[in-house]
Structure formats: C-alpha cells, structure tokens
Design brief:
single chain, 143 residues, mainly alpha, Topoisomerase I, Chain A, domain 4, 6 helices, 4 strands
Length: 143
Amino acid sequence: MDKQDKIKKRGRGQPAKYQTPEELKKAIDIYIEDCPDFTTKHTSEGTSYKVHTPTIAGLAYFLGFATRQSMYDYEKAKEEYSYIIMRARLWIEKNYEQNLVFNGATGSIFALKNMGWRDKTEVDVTGDVPTAFTFIINGEKQK
C-alpha cells in the first residue's frame, strides 16, 4: 500500500484540487498566459515597464497548493497530472534559461542550480601512468 492509499484509507489529506487533468491544464494555461508574477524594470530614460517572471513557487501558489512540495507530491501521486505539471515546470525553467541570455544572469543561475543544473569543470587526464613505483630512502632502493 503506497502513501496515497494509506492517506485515503485513514481519511486524511486534502481533497483533489483538480478533478480532471483538463481542469489543471486550463489553470496552468491561465498562469502562463496572464502570469500575475512580474518584476518592474526601470530604463535609463526614467520610464518603467513590467516583465512577467514566472516561478515554481508562483505556479504552486496560483494553483492553490500550500507549498512547492505539495505540487511536487501531486505530480508524483497522480499519474494523469504528471505530464501537465512537468511541462509547466519546464516552461518556467525555459524562462530562466532565456534570462541568462537577455537579462542579468545571477538570479537565473541560482534558480537553475536549484532545478538540477550544475557548474561543472571536467579534466581529462591522459598519458602513461606508472603502475609500479621504486622507493629510494637515504639513497638506497627499497624492496
């Protein structure tokens, strides 16, 4: 018996937030099209404008979840909703990735690292590697 079955059996837990995958997709589409999360940018000319800044926490809040983890749990527990939530998270990740090119990168780098991205340096060492060593102590070879 998995965790969700145990919760249902004991009668605890919140009722499903969305009765159908279509209902969830519609709510996510509204978040994507009319993202209520925004940042105000100021120009050197003294004007300002709003830029939509979708976030995972913003999506979870908009969808009515208490925490990001609640949304992740919903994604895992309800197979028919999994793809829809994964696509929405990917869309947000894509926005952070685009910010790396067009805007200040620091915040986007931080967010992407929390999404599993890494700074990684690889070193490839090739060549002959000795397999036997000779130790010389005080001028004498050791056996």
